[in-house]
Amino acid sequence: MEPSHIQQIVLEALRAANATRNPSDQLEVSGEAPLFGPDSSLDSMGLVVLLIDIEEALHAAGVDVTLSDEKAVSRTRSPFRSVPALVVYISGLLAAKT
What we know:
By secondary structure, this protein is mostly helical. The chain has helices at 3-19, 44-60, 70-73, 83-97.
């Protein structure tokens, strides 16, 4: 799966998350958006929901992958800090499967 397709899935999950958030709590939907950390209004529960939405969208595209595991959480630099970091992380997981 191409990184651009992965990014599209991540951005669509952000749009879906925004549909349930207050107007003042909207997440940035862009290719450079922060996801989790001081620059984002996404809390840990919101991150879990977002990751599940992304996993489900990837599954619908024919790719089974688990995003939140002990290896991901224990990394020094979180793969969940931004859209680009998450796209690189997912690309790496998919490459390791092939």
